[in-house]
Amino acid sequence: MAPMTSPTNLSFSQKVFRRLLSVLPSDFRANFGHEMEGVFAEQRRDIEGRGGPLDFLKLWWETFLGIFRTAPREHWDILKQDGAYAVRMMRKNVGFAVIAVLTLALGIGANTAIFSVVHAVLLRPLPYPEGQQLVFVRQQAQREGIDDIGFSVHEIQDYREQSRTLSGLVEYHNMSFILFGHGDPDRVRTAVVSANYFDLFGVKPLLGRTFLPSDDTLGAPPVLILSYDYWRINFGSDPDIVGKTFELNDKVHTVVGVLPPVPQYPVESDVFMPTSACPFRSAKIFIENRDSRMMEAFARVKPGVSIAEARADLTTISGRLRAEYPKSYPEQMGYAAVTSPLREELTHDARPTLLILLAAAAFVLLIACANVANLTLARTSRRERELAVRTALGAGRGRLLRQLLTESLILAIMGGLLALVFASSSLELLADFAARLTPRAHEIRMDTGALVFTLVAALGTSVLFGTLAALFSRANLTSGLKEGTSGAGTGRRKDRLRGALIVSQIAFSFVLLIGAGLMLRSLRKLLTVDAGFSAQHVLAMRTTFSFSKYASGDQLTVVGKKVLDRVQAVPGVLSASLSSVYPLEKEAIVAGSNAFSGPFRIEGRELNPGEAPPVTSQIVVSPGYFQTLGIPLREGRLLTDADDGKHQIVVLINEAAKRQFWPHEDPVGKRVRGENDKEWTTIVGVVGDVRDFGLERPAPPEFYVPQGEGVGPNALLVRTAADPASVALAAASAVHEVDSQAAVTHTLTLEQARADSTAAPRVIASLLGIFGALALLIAAAGIGGIMALNVSQRVKEMGVRMALGAQPSAILRMILRQSLILTVLGVAIGAIGALAMTGLLKSLLFQVAPTDPVTFIVVAMVLIASALLASFLPARQASSIDPIVALRNE
Q1: Which of 174, 417, 497, 621 has the most CB within a 10 Å radius?
Q2: Could you tell me if 239 and 229 are in contact, meaning their C-beta atoms sit under 8 angstroms apart?
């Protein structure tokens, strides 16, 4: 790169200065002229000592060091002078300033918002003392592909006593109970935990106390601890809540504490109770049975112990238990115990999605920076005469650099402040989205980290495009002081740089638009997938009955039939049914099909040594379940009221079970039984597949067990003739007529449930779509602006061409061809980048390949069309130039 000022240029500026000086008063000419001659001499020494790109970087560094070496008052005066001049220049070019500030605000704002989420979820340490030592412990049936089979009471005790690497191992499981004593009966998600559960996490209560060892002994007075959100929403943050009593499971429970807002895993709970208060966990038959697995386990690794050492320790213990209790740990199941950091468990679902969004936001910022840099270069080209005059009057390269950086810094700070407004307004939406992926979503906020990120982003962008502008500012003073001329060397470098910036914008935009296009195509397929049931005009609600009131299965069956009779008598109800879970229920999606799975045996098929038994999901339903949901019958018959388990025990299977277990035979009439059951169950029919656990997941093999088997009416489904919401209150009243203490919650239509199940991919597709649209808009504006600048700088050339016979259409094609070349080059580079990066989206796509050719072709066409459209106006302007006027002006 040539020096910013050459000796020839300096000599010319000295001549110009001396000519101007000659008209000044003699006394002023003597003093001021002497000082300026010294300045010129210093510049000449400076020019002779510097000449290359590295020297320019050295100048850049020295300029900033010089600011700090300057006396504070002098530094402040210079800063005020540069700032005031920068403001005057922005007022003079309001359009440029507004576009630059908005472009930067969009780019920085998107990054600030996404970074706030990433910082809170992925980067910030867990809000627990020594949180890096907390681990989640699970047992797996690895050969069955079951990630978490839970722990029994005996297993919790074994791992607690035998582990050499873990300390304070605690148990946890979650159930739903009915809480009385605060308005209507309320179904509360209840976490049942060890007494030292909160001590392990180091959680101090916001109010009251946590559990004591005495709370966890059988027969101890029942106590409760409320979660922060449940206390805030349901009790209005009552400061006197501690000591109040509520009825739960036919027992009076006393509130002893309220938790602070901390993340909960694996699900959010409303209240916490010790194990002694849970009627199931405290039952003798459950405690004594090693195979009654229901609990999760958390622990701390001991100081100085690695996760790998803890895993090896658990492997040793699980091997010891398999050898000691072979009946409880069949070899064919592949039982094993593993552990993982709690931080990973809290964020593993959110990590890939958030990193993709952060990369997309970073691309938007890079595109914005490239666009503003192009705008700045174009503006600098228009200021070449001004910069040349300032150089002629003694301004050194460092002085010009500082002025341009000041202008860029003010623009970037204004963009950063506006970015904070954009980011804070979108943060609530992003937090709601993140809550579907991680329990840490409530930690998302605009904190110091986000503010520092915004400041760094603003400073970084200002230095980037400010330095580019200074790097390519006028090099030739002679041509710079001549009206209408342009330095050829510098002009070509600027043109190449502007072209490179346009190509980079197109390339980044292509990658973003490919990601958005793939997600949109995936979402479209997801929204139109056949879920296997008819969601129109179906109302779903959770119905919870007191376990202490209906202790036996027969009692639950009776109350379930009464509920159906009352609900079906409601005007507008076509049919009603009960089930243990309904399709696309949020809790079922979170739990997954494994939570409802169990091994079974097929009559007449013996397992080979070491072979694991087949596994299927089980859903308990009433006879009208399939008619209510419109699930088709494929073979055999449906369930009837006679299938009550008192005569023949029957079951229905879905098509997935038939394909997997009876691929070449008729399963109707075949018999199966659970791994621990003694009686055989007869298959009486085959029904269509239903995607119960997520539209993106294929239907697993499922058994539909009649409700007569004694499972309570957990979910009520009602098909209506009109709007399901119109019968919601009447249906809930019908349930309360059967039992006034029943809790009816989570009322929604199956259409809403289906929409909720696709909320996360919809938000991802929307965000990527917004980022892609911003990128396309910025890139198109950049191309149009550069083409317009190109036309304005080539007016004389266009006039000469047309004077020599060039047709307007030829000029139009020339300008469009230049734009097309840049765009095609950017698309080609972007395609290479997209092919390398779209694999990251693979886990988020549904029935769409990351290299989907349709998406690539459509995006390329959209970018090319947008670029040509943006270039058409400057091209049209060039084709309409009057050669006589153009040549006369020159």
Answers
A1: 621
A2: no
